[in-house]
Amino acid sequence: MNSDINTYKEDLLSASEKLKECQKENKTNSCFDCEKLFDCEIRKKYINAVYNSMSKGQSGGFEF
Hints:
mainly alpha, elongated
């Protein structure tokens, strides 16, 4: 179980770094300023990584 938690944290860190890199390349501090907001795969992967990190792979519950 502990390795699963580490996997979620690693996935979140990776997705966060990719998102920040994209924002830097596009000279913005927020996805909301981007025209690709709803069609961006990088943002979708980040959101999924956040959700999975919070829920630890379980549907419906969050661990804070």
